[in-house]
Amino acid sequence: MRLPSLIREVWANLLKKPATVKYPFEKLPLSKTYRGKHELMRDRCVGCGLCAKICPAFAITMRSVYGKVSPEVDLAKCIFCYQCEDVCPRGAIKRGKEYELASWSRNEMIVR
Amino acid sequence: MEALRKAEENFVVLKAFNDLVLDVVSKDLCTKCGMCVSSCQVHAISMTDEGPKSVGPCRQCEACYYGCPRSPATSEELLKASLSSEKKDDILGSYNKIVSARTVLSEVKSVAQDGGVVTTLLIYALEEGLIDGGIVASKSTIEAWKPVPKVALSINDVLEAAGTKYSNCPSLVALKDALYGYDLSKVCVVGVPCQVTAARNVKVQPKAARKIGDKIAFIIGLFCMESFPHVKLAQFLTSNGIDIAKVSKFDIKEGKFRVYMGDAEVLSVPIRNLKDYANRFCETCRDLTSWYADVSVGAIGSGRDWSTVIVRSDEGAKLFDGAVQNGYLEVKDIESDGIESLRKIAKRKASKN
Ligand SMILES: Cc1cc2nc3c(=O)[nH]c(=O)nc-3n(C[C@H](O)[C@H](O)[C@H](O)COP(=O)(O)OP(=O)(O)OC[C@H]3O[C@@H](n4cnc5c(N)ncnc54)[C@H](O)[C@@H]3O)c2cc1C
Fold it and tell me: Does the C-beta of B147 come closer than 6 Å to ligand 1?
Protein backbone atom coordinates (compact mmCIF):
# COMPACT_ATOMS: atom_id res chain seq x y z
CA MET A 1 0.00 0.00 0.00
CA ARG A 2 2.85 2.44 0.74
CA LEU A 3 4.58 2.15 -2.61
CA PRO A 4 1.80 3.42 -4.89
CA SER A 5 1.28 6.54 -2.72
CA LEU A 6 4.99 7.22 -2.82
CA ILE A 7 5.06 6.93 -6.58
CA ARG A 8 2.12 9.26 -6.82
CA GLU A 9 3.97 11.80 -4.70
CA VAL A 10 7.10 11.58 -6.81
CA TRP A 11 5.12 11.90 -10.01
CA ALA A 12 3.33 15.01 -8.75
CA ASN A 13 6.55 16.66 -7.67
CA LEU A 14 8.29 15.93 -10.94
CA LEU A 15 5.81 18.07 -12.80
CA LYS A 16 5.86 20.96 -10.29
CA LYS A 17 7.75 24.18 -10.84
CA PRO A 18 10.85 24.35 -8.62
CA ALA A 19 10.38 26.17 -5.32
CA THR A 20 13.76 27.83 -5.51
CA VAL A 21 14.90 30.80 -7.57
CA LYS A 22 17.69 30.44 -10.13
CA TYR A 23 19.78 32.82 -8.06
CA PRO A 24 22.39 34.64 -10.06
CA PHE A 25 20.02 35.00 -13.00
CA GLU A 26 16.92 35.73 -11.00
CA LYS A 27 16.66 37.63 -7.72
CA LEU A 28 14.02 37.88 -5.06
CA PRO A 29 12.60 41.30 -4.22
CA LEU A 30 14.12 42.81 -1.06
CA SER A 31 12.13 44.03 1.88
CA LYS A 32 11.76 47.75 2.40
CA THR A 33 14.04 47.80 5.41
CA TYR A 34 16.68 45.43 3.98
CA ARG A 35 20.11 46.01 5.46
CA GLY A 36 22.65 45.84 2.68
CA LYS A 37 25.82 47.76 2.00
CA HIS A 38 25.88 51.21 3.60
CA GLU A 39 25.28 54.33 1.58
CA LEU A 40 27.30 57.15 3.05
CA MET A 41 26.17 60.63 2.15
CA ARG A 42 29.28 62.77 2.31
CA ASP A 43 27.52 66.10 1.93
CA ARG A 44 25.49 65.46 5.07
CA CYS A 45 28.22 64.06 7.29
CA VAL A 46 29.88 66.54 9.62
CA GLY A 47 32.28 64.01 11.12
CA CYS A 48 30.89 63.92 14.64
CA GLY A 49 31.88 60.30 15.04
CA LEU A 50 28.74 59.04 16.79
CA CYS A 51 28.52 56.09 14.40
CA ALA A 52 32.08 55.02 15.20
CA LYS A 53 31.38 55.32 18.92
CA ILE A 54 28.22 53.23 18.86
CA CYS A 55 29.36 50.49 16.47
CA PRO A 56 29.31 47.26 18.52
CA ALA A 57 31.63 45.48 16.08
CA PHE A 58 34.21 48.29 15.89
CA ALA A 59 33.72 48.27 12.15
CA ILE A 60 33.64 52.05 11.71
CA THR A 61 36.72 54.24 11.90
CA MET A 62 36.85 57.97 11.41
CA ARG A 63 39.37 58.99 8.75
CA SER A 64 40.45 62.39 7.63
CA VAL A 65 40.40 62.79 3.87
CA TYR A 66 41.53 66.18 2.53
CA GLY A 67 40.84 67.71 5.93
CA LYS A 68 37.31 66.36 6.15
CA VAL A 69 36.68 63.73 8.78
CA SER A 70 34.27 61.03 7.74
CA PRO A 71 33.53 57.38 8.54
CA GLU A 72 34.79 54.25 6.86
CA VAL A 73 32.83 51.03 7.31
CA ASP A 74 34.73 47.77 7.22
CA LEU A 75 32.21 45.29 5.85
CA ALA A 76 34.34 42.37 6.98
CA LYS A 77 33.64 43.37 10.56
CA CYS A 78 30.17 44.85 10.15
CA ILE A 79 27.29 42.85 11.62
CA PHE A 80 24.68 44.95 9.79
CA CYS A 81 22.83 46.01 12.94
CA TYR A 82 22.51 49.53 11.54
CA GLN A 83 22.78 51.23 14.88
CA CYS A 84 24.96 53.71 13.02
CA GLU A 85 21.97 54.72 10.93
CA ASP A 86 19.78 55.03 14.02
CA VAL A 87 22.26 57.20 15.84
CA CYS A 88 23.35 59.52 13.02
CA PRO A 89 21.77 62.90 13.82
CA ARG A 90 22.19 64.17 10.27
CA GLY A 91 20.79 61.15 8.45
CA ALA A 92 24.06 60.62 6.57
CA ILE A 93 23.98 56.82 6.64
CA LYS A 94 21.31 55.04 4.58
CA ARG A 95 20.53 51.36 4.20
CA GLY A 96 21.64 50.22 0.79
CA LYS A 97 20.17 47.35 -1.18
CA GLU A 98 23.42 45.82 -2.38
CA TYR A 99 24.07 42.42 -0.82
CA GLU A 100 26.65 40.75 -3.04
CA LEU A 101 29.61 41.83 -0.97
CA ALA A 102 32.15 39.05 -1.38
CA SER A 103 35.52 40.19 -2.59
CA TRP A 104 39.10 39.00 -3.16
CA SER A 105 40.79 41.76 -1.19
CA ARG A 106 40.22 43.33 2.22
CA ASN A 107 40.60 46.77 0.74
CA GLU A 108 37.49 46.32 -1.34
CA MET A 109 35.53 45.46 1.80
CA ILE A 110 35.78 49.02 3.06
CA VAL A 111 32.96 51.46 2.31
CA ARG A 112 34.32 54.95 2.02
CA MET B 1 56.79 75.63 16.97
CA GLU B 2 55.53 75.24 13.44
CA ALA B 3 53.94 71.92 14.39
CA LEU B 4 52.24 73.52 17.36
CA ARG B 5 50.83 76.32 15.25
CA LYS B 6 49.53 73.78 12.75
CA ALA B 7 47.91 71.72 15.47
CA GLU B 8 46.25 74.84 16.80
CA GLU B 9 44.88 75.67 13.36
CA ASN B 10 43.39 72.22 12.99
CA PHE B 11 41.92 72.26 16.46
CA VAL B 12 38.15 72.42 16.17
CA VAL B 13 36.14 73.59 19.12
CA LEU B 14 33.36 71.11 19.67
CA LYS B 15 30.07 72.54 20.81
CA ALA B 16 28.85 69.92 23.22
CA PHE B 17 25.91 70.06 25.60
CA ASN B 18 27.90 71.93 28.23
CA ASP B 19 28.49 74.70 25.69
CA LEU B 20 24.75 74.87 25.17
CA VAL B 21 24.33 75.26 28.91
CA LEU B 22 26.99 77.97 29.00
CA ASP B 23 25.86 79.94 25.96
CA VAL B 24 22.10 79.60 26.26
CA VAL B 25 20.67 78.10 29.44
CA SER B 26 22.80 79.95 31.99
CA LYS B 27 22.24 83.23 30.18
CA ASP B 28 18.46 82.91 30.61
CA LEU B 29 17.99 82.62 26.86
CA CYS B 30 16.63 79.07 26.78
CA THR B 31 13.03 78.97 25.55
CA LYS B 32 12.47 75.38 26.66
CA CYS B 33 11.28 74.47 23.19
CA GLY B 34 12.61 70.93 23.49
CA MET B 35 14.63 70.68 20.29
CA CYS B 36 17.85 69.74 22.12
CA VAL B 37 16.08 66.78 23.69
CA SER B 38 14.86 65.53 20.32
CA SER B 39 18.18 66.22 18.62
CA CYS B 40 20.14 64.10 21.08
CA GLN B 41 20.56 60.66 19.57
CA VAL B 42 22.07 59.15 22.71
CA HIS B 43 19.20 60.23 24.97
CA ALA B 44 21.46 62.26 27.23
CA ILE B 45 19.15 65.29 27.63
CA SER B 46 15.87 65.55 29.44
CA MET B 47 13.54 68.54 29.76
CA THR B 48 12.50 70.01 33.10
CA ASP B 49 10.54 73.14 33.98
CA GLU B 50 13.87 74.93 34.50
CA GLY B 51 15.33 73.90 31.16
CA PRO B 52 17.27 70.99 29.68
CA LYS B 53 19.21 68.77 32.04
CA SER B 54 21.96 66.32 31.26
CA VAL B 55 20.92 62.79 32.17
CA GLY B 56 23.64 60.79 30.45
CA PRO B 57 27.10 61.02 28.94
CA CYS B 58 27.32 63.55 26.09
CA ARG B 59 28.95 62.13 22.96
CA GLN B 60 29.73 65.56 21.54
CA CYS B 61 27.91 65.26 18.24
CA GLU B 62 26.96 68.97 18.43
CA ALA B 63 23.41 68.39 17.20
CA CYS B 64 21.78 70.06 20.22
CA TYR B 65 23.92 73.17 19.96
CA TYR B 66 23.23 73.79 16.28
CA GLY B 67 19.52 72.99 16.49
CA CYS B 68 18.92 75.43 19.35
CA PRO B 69 16.99 78.53 18.24
CA ARG B 70 18.88 80.70 20.72
CA SER B 71 22.42 79.42 20.22
CA PRO B 72 24.93 81.91 18.81
CA ALA B 73 25.38 79.50 15.88
CA THR B 74 21.83 80.11 14.60
CA SER B 75 22.23 82.08 11.41
CA GLU B 76 19.42 84.33 10.27
CA GLU B 77 20.77 84.44 6.72
CA LEU B 78 20.60 80.67 6.40
CA LEU B 79 17.06 80.57 7.77
CA LYS B 80 15.92 83.44 5.56
CA ALA B 81 17.45 81.91 2.45
CA SER B 82 15.46 78.73 3.00
CA LEU B 83 12.13 80.46 2.33
CA SER B 84 11.27 81.08 -1.30
CA SER B 85 8.81 83.90 -0.86
CA GLU B 86 8.04 86.75 -3.20
CA LYS B 87 7.81 89.61 -0.74
CA LYS B 88 10.65 90.33 1.62
CA ASP B 89 9.69 92.27 4.69
CA ASP B 90 11.87 93.14 7.65
CA ILE B 91 9.06 93.18 10.17
CA LEU B 92 6.58 90.55 9.03
CA GLY B 93 9.23 88.27 7.56
CA SER B 94 9.12 87.18 3.94
CA TYR B 95 5.73 86.03 2.70
CA ASN B 96 3.63 85.24 -0.36
CA LYS B 97 0.27 86.47 0.86
CA ILE B 98 -1.65 87.59 3.93
CA VAL B 99 -5.37 86.80 4.23
CA SER B 100 -8.10 86.39 6.82
CA ALA B 101 -9.53 82.90 7.21
CA ARG B 102 -11.75 80.83 9.46
CA THR B 103 -12.91 77.27 9.73
CA VAL B 104 -16.23 75.91 8.47
CA LEU B 105 -16.14 72.83 10.69
CA SER B 106 -18.56 73.25 13.59
CA GLU B 107 -16.68 70.87 15.90
CA VAL B 108 -13.59 73.06 15.54
CA LYS B 109 -15.45 76.33 16.06
CA SER B 110 -16.56 75.33 19.53
CA VAL B 111 -13.05 74.56 20.80
CA ALA B 112 -10.67 76.79 18.84
CA GLN B 113 -9.06 79.99 20.03
CA ASP B 114 -9.78 82.32 17.12
CA GLY B 115 -10.63 81.22 13.60
CA GLY B 116 -9.66 77.61 14.23
CA VAL B 117 -7.32 77.70 11.26
CA VAL B 118 -4.52 75.74 12.91
CA THR B 119 -6.76 72.89 14.00
CA THR B 120 -8.50 72.78 10.61
CA LEU B 121 -5.21 72.70 8.70
CA LEU B 122 -4.11 69.77 10.85
CA ILE B 123 -7.41 67.93 10.26
CA TYR B 124 -7.17 68.53 6.52
CA ALA B 125 -3.57 67.31 6.36
CA LEU B 126 -4.37 64.20 8.40
CA GLU B 127 -7.44 63.31 6.33
CA GLU B 128 -5.64 63.96 3.07
CA GLY B 129 -2.61 61.92 4.15
CA LEU B 130 -0.23 64.86 3.80
CA ILE B 131 1.03 64.10 7.30
CA ASP B 132 1.08 61.09 9.62
CA GLY B 133 0.83 63.17 12.76
CA GLY B 134 1.16 66.60 14.30
CA ILE B 135 3.21 67.98 17.17
CA VAL B 136 0.80 69.98 19.34
CA ALA B 137 0.42 71.36 22.85
CA SER B 138 -2.31 69.50 24.65
CA LYS B 139 -3.69 70.18 28.12
CA SER B 140 -2.28 68.33 31.09
CA THR B 141 -4.73 66.07 32.87
CA ILE B 142 -3.04 66.71 36.22
CA GLU B 143 -2.42 70.46 36.36
CA ALA B 144 -5.13 72.67 34.90
CA TRP B 145 -4.02 74.68 31.84
CA LYS B 146 -0.50 73.33 31.86
CA PRO B 147 0.42 72.60 28.24
CA VAL B 148 2.03 69.23 27.58
CA PRO B 149 3.68 68.10 24.33
CA LYS B 150 1.64 65.61 22.34
CA VAL B 151 1.84 63.69 19.10
CA ALA B 152 -1.60 64.05 17.51
CA LEU B 153 -2.33 60.96 15.43
CA SER B 154 -6.07 61.38 14.99
CA ILE B 155 -8.62 64.13 14.56
CA ASN B 156 -9.71 63.65 18.17
CA ASP B 157 -6.17 64.33 19.37
CA VAL B 158 -6.06 67.52 17.30
CA LEU B 159 -9.40 68.74 18.64
CA GLU B 160 -8.27 68.02 22.19
CA ALA B 161 -5.22 70.26 21.70
CA ALA B 162 -7.15 73.20 20.22
CA GLY B 163 -7.16 76.52 22.07
CA THR B 164 -4.23 78.61 23.26
CA LYS B 165 -2.43 77.90 26.50
CA TYR B 166 -0.43 80.99 27.35
CA SER B 167 2.35 79.05 29.06
CA ASN B 168 5.48 77.90 27.28
CA CYS B 169 5.39 74.26 26.25
CA PRO B 170 8.34 72.01 25.35
CA SER B 171 6.35 70.77 22.34
CA LEU B 172 9.35 69.69 20.30
CA VAL B 173 10.20 67.00 22.84
CA ALA B 174 7.30 65.11 21.26
CA LEU B 175 9.24 64.94 17.98
CA LYS B 176 11.28 62.20 19.61
CA ASP B 177 8.18 60.13 20.30
CA ALA B 178 6.79 60.84 16.87
CA LEU B 179 9.90 59.82 14.94
CA TYR B 180 11.36 57.03 17.04
CA GLY B 181 8.32 55.85 19.00
CA TYR B 182 5.54 56.00 16.44
CA ASP B 183 7.95 55.84 13.49
CA LEU B 184 6.21 58.62 11.59
CA SER B 185 7.83 59.96 8.45
CA LYS B 186 5.79 63.14 7.81
CA VAL B 187 4.95 65.35 10.75
CA CYS B 188 3.57 68.86 11.08
CA VAL B 189 4.99 71.03 13.85
CA VAL B 190 2.77 73.66 15.50
CA GLY B 191 4.55 76.17 17.66
CA VAL B 192 5.38 79.67 18.74
CA PRO B 193 8.20 81.59 16.97
CA CYS B 194 11.06 80.12 19.01
CA GLN B 195 9.89 76.59 18.30
CA VAL B 196 9.39 77.41 14.63
CA THR B 197 12.96 78.70 14.44
CA ALA B 198 14.20 75.44 15.96
CA ALA B 199 12.14 73.36 13.54
CA ARG B 200 13.49 75.35 10.59
CA ASN B 201 17.01 75.08 12.00
CA VAL B 202 17.03 71.30 11.81
CA LYS B 203 15.90 71.53 8.19
CA VAL B 204 18.56 73.95 6.97
CA GLN B 205 21.49 74.09 9.40
CA PRO B 206 24.01 71.45 8.18
CA LYS B 207 25.28 70.64 11.65
CA ALA B 208 21.86 70.33 13.28
CA ALA B 209 19.89 67.08 13.49
CA ARG B 210 18.90 67.01 9.82
CA LYS B 211 17.39 63.57 10.23
CA ILE B 212 14.56 65.23 12.15
CA GLY B 213 14.31 68.02 9.60
CA ASP B 214 13.79 65.50 6.81
CA LYS B 215 10.65 64.26 8.50
CA ILE B 216 9.06 67.64 9.21
CA ALA B 217 6.60 68.16 6.39
CA PHE B 218 5.04 71.45 7.47
CA ILE B 219 5.71 74.08 10.12
CA ILE B 220 2.71 76.06 11.34
CA GLY B 221 3.70 79.10 13.36
CA LEU B 222 1.59 81.08 15.83
CA PHE B 223 1.87 84.79 16.51
CA CYS B 224 3.32 85.32 19.94
CA MET B 225 3.96 88.43 22.00
CA GLU B 226 5.16 86.55 25.07
CA SER B 227 4.32 83.55 27.20
CA PHE B 228 3.97 83.08 30.95
CA PRO B 229 5.38 80.26 33.05
CA HIS B 230 2.52 78.09 34.23
CA VAL B 231 3.35 78.54 37.90
CA LYS B 232 3.35 82.32 37.65
CA LEU B 233 0.14 82.39 35.63
CA ALA B 234 -1.58 80.35 38.34
CA GLN B 235 -0.14 82.71 40.99
CA PHE B 236 -1.43 85.76 39.16
CA LEU B 237 -4.91 84.29 38.92
CA THR B 238 -4.92 83.28 42.57
CA SER B 239 -3.93 86.81 43.56
CA ASN B 240 -7.00 87.95 41.63
CA GLY B 241 -9.19 85.42 43.39
CA ILE B 242 -9.57 83.06 40.42
CA ASP B 243 -9.04 79.32 40.53
CA ILE B 244 -7.18 78.30 37.37
CA ALA B 245 -8.94 74.93 37.33
CA LYS B 246 -12.31 76.61 36.71
CA VAL B 247 -11.17 78.79 33.81
CA SER B 248 -12.64 77.87 30.44
CA LYS B 249 -10.64 80.18 28.18
CA PHE B 250 -7.79 82.68 28.15
CA ASP B 251 -7.44 85.34 25.52
CA ILE B 252 -5.26 88.32 24.70
CA LYS B 253 -7.15 90.86 22.59
CA GLU B 254 -6.79 94.62 22.12
CA GLY B 255 -3.99 94.80 24.66
CA LYS B 256 -6.06 93.15 27.38
CA PHE B 257 -5.59 89.78 29.05
CA ARG B 258 -9.02 88.23 29.43
CA VAL B 259 -10.10 85.23 31.46
CA TYR B 260 -13.38 83.42 30.89
CA MET B 261 -15.33 81.01 33.09
CA GLY B 262 -18.07 79.34 31.13
CA ASP B 263 -19.19 82.15 28.82
CA ALA B 264 -18.68 84.96 31.33
CA GLU B 265 -15.63 87.18 31.33
CA VAL B 266 -14.28 87.21 34.87
CA LEU B 267 -11.09 89.20 34.41
CA SER B 268 -9.83 91.75 31.95
CA VAL B 269 -6.57 93.50 32.73
CA PRO B 270 -4.17 95.47 30.53
CA ILE B 271 -1.42 93.18 29.33
CA ARG B 272 1.30 95.46 30.73
CA ASN B 273 0.14 94.59 34.26
CA LEU B 274 1.43 91.09 33.57
CA LYS B 275 4.92 92.20 32.56
CA ASP B 276 6.50 90.83 35.73
CA TYR B 277 4.89 87.46 35.19
CA ALA B 278 6.14 86.94 31.62
CA ASN B 279 8.96 84.60 30.74
CA ARG B 280 12.41 86.19 30.96
CA PHE B 281 13.53 84.60 27.70
CA CYS B 282 10.78 86.41 25.78
CA GLU B 283 12.55 89.72 26.44
CA THR B 284 15.19 89.00 23.81
CA CYS B 285 12.77 87.80 21.12
CA ARG B 286 12.01 90.09 18.18
CA ASP B 287 9.86 87.72 16.17
CA LEU B 288 6.08 88.19 16.50
CA THR B 289 4.80 86.43 13.43
CA SER B 290 6.93 83.26 13.22
CA TRP B 291 9.20 84.38 10.39
CA TYR B 292 10.41 80.90 9.46
CA ALA B 293 7.12 79.00 9.41
CA ASP B 294 5.43 77.67 6.28
CA VAL B 295 2.15 79.20 7.44
CA SER B 296 1.78 81.67 10.31
CA VAL B 297 -1.55 82.05 12.09
CA GLY B 298 -2.66 84.63 14.64
CA ALA B 299 -5.45 86.90 15.74
CA ILE B 300 -3.99 90.38 15.24
CA GLY B 301 -5.36 92.10 12.14
CA SER B 302 -8.59 90.16 11.66
CA GLY B 303 -11.96 90.61 13.28
CA ARG B 304 -13.55 88.43 15.97
CA ASP B 305 -13.57 84.70 15.14
CA TRP B 306 -11.29 85.20 12.15
CA SER B 307 -7.60 84.42 11.96
CA THR B 308 -4.86 86.23 10.12
CA VAL B 309 -2.94 83.79 7.94
CA ILE B 310 0.49 84.51 6.47
CA VAL B 311 1.54 82.03 3.78
CA ARG B 312 5.33 82.03 3.47
CA SER B 313 6.49 79.07 1.41
CA ASP B 314 5.41 76.72 -1.37
CA GLU B 315 4.68 73.95 1.14
CA GLY B 316 2.62 76.41 3.13
CA ALA B 317 0.68 77.38 0.00
CA LYS B 318 0.08 73.71 -0.81
CA LEU B 319 -1.36 73.12 2.67
CA PHE B 320 -3.42 76.28 2.97
CA ASP B 321 -4.75 76.46 -0.59
CA GLY B 322 -5.57 72.75 -0.47
CA ALA B 323 -7.64 73.25 2.66
CA VAL B 324 -9.45 76.19 1.06
CA GLN B 325 -10.15 74.38 -2.21
CA ASN B 326 -11.48 71.32 -0.41
CA GLY B 327 -13.90 73.45 1.58
CA TYR B 328 -12.32 73.23 5.02
CA LEU B 329 -11.66 76.95 5.34
CA GLU B 330 -13.31 80.15 4.14
CA VAL B 331 -11.11 83.09 3.22
CA LYS B 332 -11.51 86.81 2.70
CA ASP B 333 -9.11 89.62 1.93
CA ILE B 334 -7.57 91.17 4.99
CA GLU B 335 -8.48 94.81 5.60
CA SER B 336 -5.63 97.20 5.01
CA ASP B 337 -5.84 98.60 8.54
CA GLY B 338 -5.52 94.98 9.70
CA ILE B 339 -2.12 94.70 8.07
CA GLU B 340 -1.26 98.14 9.43
CA SER B 341 -2.02 97.18 13.03
CA LEU B 342 -0.19 93.86 12.60
CA ARG B 343 2.82 95.75 11.28
CA LYS B 344 2.61 98.25 14.13
CA ILE B 345 2.52 95.59 16.84
CA ALA B 346 5.23 93.52 15.14
CA LYS B 347 7.40 96.63 14.95
CA ARG B 348 6.83 97.29 18.61
CA LYS B 349 8.04 93.81 19.50
CA ALA B 350 11.00 94.06 17.12
CA SER B 351 12.17 97.39 18.52
CA LYS B 352 11.34 96.79 22.17
CA ASN B 353 13.65 93.83 22.45
C1 LIG C 1 1.99 81.76 24.15
C2 LIG C 1 1.15 82.29 23.02
C3 LIG C 1 1.02 83.67 22.82
C4 LIG C 1 0.25 84.16 21.78
N5 LIG C 1 0.18 85.53 21.61
C6 LIG C 1 -0.54 86.03 20.58
C7 LIG C 1 -0.63 87.43 20.37
O8 LIG C 1 -0.05 88.22 21.10
N9 LIG C 1 -1.34 87.89 19.31
C10 LIG C 1 -2.01 87.03 18.45
O11 LIG C 1 -2.65 87.47 17.52
N12 LIG C 1 -1.94 85.70 18.64
C13 LIG C 1 -1.23 85.17 19.68
N14 LIG C 1 -1.18 83.81 19.85
C15 LIG C 1 -1.83 82.93 18.87
C16 LIG C 1 -3.34 82.79 19.12
O17 LIG C 1 -3.62 82.66 20.48
C18 LIG C 1 -3.89 81.55 18.41
O19 LIG C 1 -3.15 80.42 18.75
C20 LIG C 1 -3.86 81.70 16.90
O21 LIG C 1 -4.60 82.83 16.53
C22 LIG C 1 -4.41 80.48 16.22
O23 LIG C 1 -5.79 80.44 16.39
P24 LIG C 1 -6.64 79.18 15.95
O25 LIG C 1 -8.05 79.39 16.34
O26 LIG C 1 -6.35 78.91 14.52
O27 LIG C 1 -5.95 78.05 16.84
P28 LIG C 1 -6.54 76.65 17.30
O29 LIG C 1 -7.23 75.99 16.16
O30 LIG C 1 -7.29 76.83 18.57
O31 LIG C 1 -5.19 75.84 17.58
C32 LIG C 1 -4.24 76.30 18.48
C33 LIG C 1 -3.01 75.46 18.31
O34 LIG C 1 -1.98 76.06 19.07
C35 LIG C 1 -1.27 75.09 19.80
N36 LIG C 1 -0.85 75.67 21.07
C37 LIG C 1 -1.63 76.14 22.04
N38 LIG C 1 -0.88 76.59 23.07
C39 LIG C 1 0.40 76.40 22.72
C40 LIG C 1 1.64 76.67 23.36
N41 LIG C 1 1.69 77.24 24.56
N42 LIG C 1 2.78 76.35 22.71
C43 LIG C 1 2.72 75.76 21.51
N44 LIG C 1 1.59 75.50 20.85
C45 LIG C 1 0.43 75.83 21.45
C46 LIG C 1 -2.23 73.95 20.00
O47 LIG C 1 -1.54 72.75 19.96
C48 LIG C 1 -3.19 74.06 18.81
O49 LIG C 1 -2.82 73.17 17.81
C50 LIG C 1 -0.42 83.28 20.90
C51 LIG C 1 -0.30 81.91 21.10
C52 LIG C 1 0.48 81.40 22.13
C53 LIG C 1 0.59 79.89 22.30
Answer: yes
Question: Best interface-test mutation with A: which of B210, B212, B214 has the largest number of A CBs within 10 A?
Answer: B210
What is the set of domains in chain B, with CATH numbers? 9-227+279-352 (no CATH), 230-275 (3.10.450.750)
pLDDT one-digit tens code per residue, B313-341? 999 999 999 999 999 999 999 988 889 99
**CA–CA separation, B330 vs B115, rounded Å?**
10
Cβ-based neighbour number of residue B266 at 10 Å: 16
Q: Measuring CA to CA, how many Å separate A22 from each of A13, A17, A27, A60, A99?
A: 18, 12, 8, 35, 16
Instruction: Judge if the beta carbon of residue B169 lies within 6 A of ligand 1.
Output: yes
The ipTM estimated for the assembled molecules is 0.80
Q: Is the Cβ pair A89, B214 closer than 8 Å?
A: no
CA distance A53 to chain B (A): 8
Q: Cα-Cα-Cα-Cα dihedral of B65, B66, B70, B72, to 10°?
A: 90
For B291-315, write each residue's pLDDT tens digit: 999 999 999 988 888 999 999 999 9
CB of B216 within 8 A of CB of B187? yes
For residue B246, give the 3-state DSSP assignment. Answer: helix
> What are the structural domain ranges in chain A?
31-111
B59, A87 in Cβ contact below 8 A?
Answer: no
To the nearest whole Å, the CA of A100 is away from the closest chain B CA by 28
Taking the Cβ of residue A87 and every Cβ of chain B, the question of whether any pair is shorter than 8 Å is answered with yes
d(CA A45, ligand 1 centre) in Å? 36
The predicted model scores a pTM of: 0.91
What is A31-111's CATH topology?
Alpha-Beta Plaits (3.30.70)
Looking at beta carbons, which residues of chain A come within 8 Å of B207? Answer: 46, 90
